[in-house]
Amino acid sequence: MRITEHPILDFQRGEEVTFFFDGQELKGFEGETIAAALHAAGVRVLGHSQTMHRPRGLFCAIGNCSSCLMVVDGEPNIRICVEKLKPGMRVETQEGKGCLR
Amino acid sequence: MPKVKEIEVLIIGGGPAGLSAAAAAAELGASVLVFERDDKTGGQLVKQTHKFFGSKKQYAGDRGYQIGNLLIDQCMSNPKVEVWTDTTALGIYEDGVVTAEGQGKHLKIKPERIIVATGASEKMIAFPNNDLPGIYGAGAVQTLMNVHGIVPGQRVLMIGAGNIGLIVSYQMMQAGVEVVAIIEAAPTIGGYLVHASKIRRAGVPILTSHTITEAYGQDSVEGAIICQLDEKWQPIPGSEQDLKVDVICLAVGLSPLTELCFQADCEMKFVPELSGHVPLRNKYLETTRPGLYVAGDVSGVEEASSAMVEGRLAGVCAAFSLGYGNDVAPKLQADALAELSELRAGPAGQKTVNGIKKLMDKGGAAC
Amino acid sequence: MLNKTGVPTAEDVLTVTPSEERLKKGPVAIIECFQEIPCNPCTEACKQGAIQPMEDINNLPQLDYDQCNGCGVCLSRCPGLAIFIVDASYSETEAIVRIPFEYVPVPRVGESVVGLNRAGEELGTFVVNKVQSGGQKNKTYTIWLVVPKALAMDVRSIRLGGLRHAN
Prior knowledge:
The structure holds three protein chains of three kinds. Chain A is mainly beta. Helices cover 7% and strands 32% of the residues of chain A. Chain A is globular and about 45 Å long. By secondary structure, chain C is an alpha+beta fold.
């Protein structure tokens, strides 16, 4: 959910763009991270762990923890909390370690 | 072989300490390069919506993001300061070369002085299902809300009543998110009581001597079980409460981000009061590796106000050691040291004062 | 206890409560700052010389109630949002309590709001009779509430509005 009114901050958002999450078309704003756009759309499960297949979500949001690795445009292990959203991006849930195609 | 870039002062980290260091060193005439891992400088300052404490010298009364913008402007308007964003330092080597990754390139820099101002990272605590989506570090919630303008969820359990737990709870309330409770395992609130009081009077309970025993949920957080602790920090049977929340936010402390100091072979010491392993350093913030200074949370977790003053001190010292500002540097050093003492003089600063004392003590288990 | 719950005790509050006579005379600042932290913007905000300069920045603020005219500048400057203005001279039966406010929506003049005490408990419904903006940079609003005189030293907050998000 996006904040529409805030007592202290004004949010400058870029152009609205379309991207794809597991094939589903979603909207986000240029300049924000993929994680931000997915969160705004209510997506919290970003992948599953290698051995126990446990759901993985966003944890640190600044590129430290690697909890948010996803497959972006075919490339696995992208830290979507620091990777910027671009129009037409294909973002996919990552299973385990992911594999290079 | 990529060309090695030479620079007088390299600052690793563009947060409050790093930017203050950059401005201070450049002001004295040194040429400065700042590495910032993020795409913008300002560090966590730009995510702070509350007014800062301290005195005028540390911009007290201004809000964190306003101070952040001020420091950024100060650096940007000084032609002696160059800032490389999206640049992560990788290593500091024996021959003095610093390597970094920036925009997919491997970079080599040969600085005359280095100031490590890498800050801190968030700690984690153990409880069943602590890996569920919907459990965030407090910093992540700040980033989502105050940088991107996105709320983490609807109903939140905050774990930790230190300053970060209190401040981020308040920020969530400002963003219209319901904070169900703030729990703290310690018997007393660790953060400033004025922060606690303003949250409490808006109706959010702060439960000291309480901890989380488990999180639950199918694919993401649906709730948490909390319980009360006795004087020996043991769970009191029957005190369990089931809170329906979709977010659990962890504000359980920070650890200095000292990997680079370890790797650069600075002598390190574990000092609990400073929140972990920190490099030994003299009062001018120079570590046991000559020419390598530290400033801010990497030298011991504290407040942004003191991080800015430490940054200024390290910047002045680095430039002074290169022969800049001979006339004014000693006074600037003395001023910064006096400000640090002033900030740490009260009960709130005792922990840091004791930590630094332990750190500077000869002997003990250094590693 | 304050450091266990965030709620100042009655004894804490007494230490910053002016005399009955002073309260009757008109607006006065109530500085609910009970912990020594490094902070002094209130001393610089006060143009009346009522908040004494601090020798040590960690000192608690010292307010001279007789010098204080209740102007409220300190209220909007206090980083801890710990200063309130109480005017017990407002009417026979009512007082004005001014509280700092940094949430949305900001209440409007004439609106009735639920007043809360220091523990966040409801004390009743009160009318907002003035709303001061803190300005572009400061951003802290001051909300003026009309409360029964007996509650002037108790009302310290108002119930926040509901959720305010799109999509």
